[in-house]
Amino acid sequence: MQAVRKTSSWAYWCQKRLLSTSSAVNGRRSREPWDKRFPVRAEDVSPDKTGGSKEMAKALPEDIVAPTGIYHRLTGEYIHVPEMVPEFVVPDLTGFELKPYVSYRAKEINQAPLTPKDVFNSVYAETVEDEYRRGTIKVDGESIQLSDGRVLNAKDFVVDKDEEAQ
């Protein structure tokens, strides 16, 4: 008897699960098949996606603009909120030479650490050489007189031990 009741209750629950008279959207707030917070875009229904087609992509707007206000609950009046208007702060990049993106596929660059000599050679060496040739920098033994009148002594500068060996 126990076995019959278990099987009959199982059959009863199976039939109850399969037969439903409620609406297909039971428990949803709207009958729309998508979430209103995330509108469907043309690229979501493009022909190369599963279930997409050219007609669906054409029917949707090209640009989706976020609202800049709210609707009042009682009156239904649209209230513009200035804080919801996007503000783009873009720096002036005229003369900026770097690229905006570095791919992860870029080859790794192995470079020795910069030394003070490398920095001097890349930034100042050419200017110092030009001024020396024009005669604005004068060298007298161990002292160097710059174009602005300052005098530098060679004893005050630290020299790498590797350079002395060369």
From TrEMBL:
<dbReference type="GO" id="GO:0003735">
    <property type="term" value="F:structural constituent of ribosome"/>
</dbReference>
<dbReference type="Pfam" id="PF09809">
    <property type="entry name" value="MRP-L27"/>
</dbReference>
<keyword id="KW-0496">Mitochondrion</keyword>
<keyword id="KW-0809">Transit peptide</keyword>
<dbReference type="InterPro" id="IPR019189">
    <property type="entry name" value="Ribosomal_mL41"/>
</dbReference>
<comment type="similarity">
    <text>Belongs to the mitochondrion-specific ribosomal protein mL41 family.</text>
</comment>
<keyword id="KW-0687">Ribonucleoprotein</keyword>
<dbReference type="GO" id="GO:0006412">
    <property type="term" value="P:translation"/>
</dbReference>
<dbReference type="GO" id="GO:0005762">
    <property type="term" value="C:mitochondrial large ribosomal subunit"/>
</dbReference>
<keyword id="KW-0689">Ribosomal protein</keyword>
<protein>
    <recommendedName>
        <fullName>39S ribosomal protein L41, mitochondrial</fullName>
    </recommendedName>
</protein>
